[in-house]
């Protein structure tokens, strides 16, 4: 075999090893029950939970509690199975947070509170289709 063939096989082997090792770190969206179960079983990886902010019967967002220094806040989130959970975020509230339609929190459990390392938001205005009606 030529040296170039051996080097090519080694590069392909390393690439396959990298792909396999990163595939194990990929996470999927879960609900709060599954996230708590994963944390109880010793899974310290980042867990992705998707849901919505808790709203009152009138449609107003409830449960947002900013800290005294406004550098962190907690909020109530409802997952897809209608489970409510307090989520703590150790960063200031994102500007469009209250307007978000869906929220994805990435983090882990600390006792009975989900501590988010990152928050991803889907704002409705960004995804709504604008239609123009022409009057004749």
Task: Report on this structure.
With 136 residues, the protein is an alpha+beta fold. The chain has one domain: OB fold (Dihydrolipoamide Acetyltransferase, E2P) (Beta Barrel). The protein has helices spanning 3-23, 32-40, 124-127; strands at residues 29-30, 47-53, 65-66, 73-79, 84-89, 102-110, 113-122. Strand 6 and strand 7 (113-122) form a beta hairpin. The chain is elongated, with a radius of gyration of 21 Å.
Short description:
This protein is 25% helix and 32% strand.
Bin the helical content: 25-40%
**Main pleated-sheet profile:** 5 strands, mixed, barrel
User: In what range is the share of β-strand residues?
Assistant: 25-35%
Average of the residue pLDDT scores: 84
Q: How would you sum up the global shape?
A: elongated
- Strand order across the largest sheet: 2-4-5-7-6
The strand count comes to: 7
* Order of H and E elements: HEHEEEEEEH
SS field, number of helical segments = 3
CATH homologous superfamily (4th level) name: Nucleic acid-binding proteins
Distance between the termini: 77 Å
User: Which CATH C-level class is it?
Assistant: Mainly Beta
Any idea what the radius of gyration is?
21 Å
- Counting helices, strands and paired strands, the structural category is alpha+beta
Q: Any guess at the CATH architecture?
A: Beta Barrel
- Fold-level CATH name: OB fold (Dihydrolipoamide Acetyltransferase, E2P)
Instruction: Enumerate the spans where pLDDT stays under 50 for 5 or more consecutive residues.
Output: none
Count of separate structural domains: 1
């Amino acid at each position: 075999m030529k040296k170039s063939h051996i080097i090519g096989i080694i590069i392909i082997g390393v690439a396959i090893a990298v792909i396999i090792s990163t595939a194990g770190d990929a996470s999927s969206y879960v609900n709060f029950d599954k996230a708590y179960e994963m944390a109880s079983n010793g899974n310290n990886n980042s867990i992705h939970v998707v849901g919505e902010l808790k709203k009152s019967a009138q449609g107003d967002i409830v449960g947002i509690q900013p800290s005294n220094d406004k550098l962190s806040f907690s909020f109530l989130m409802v997952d897809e199975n209608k489970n409510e959970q307090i989520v703590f975020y150790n960063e200031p509230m994102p500007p469009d947070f209250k307007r978000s339609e869906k929220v994805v929190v990435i983090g882990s459990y600390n006792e009975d509170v989900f501590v988010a390392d990152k928050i991803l938001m889907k704002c409705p205005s960004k995804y709504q289709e604008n239609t123009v009606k022409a009057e004749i």
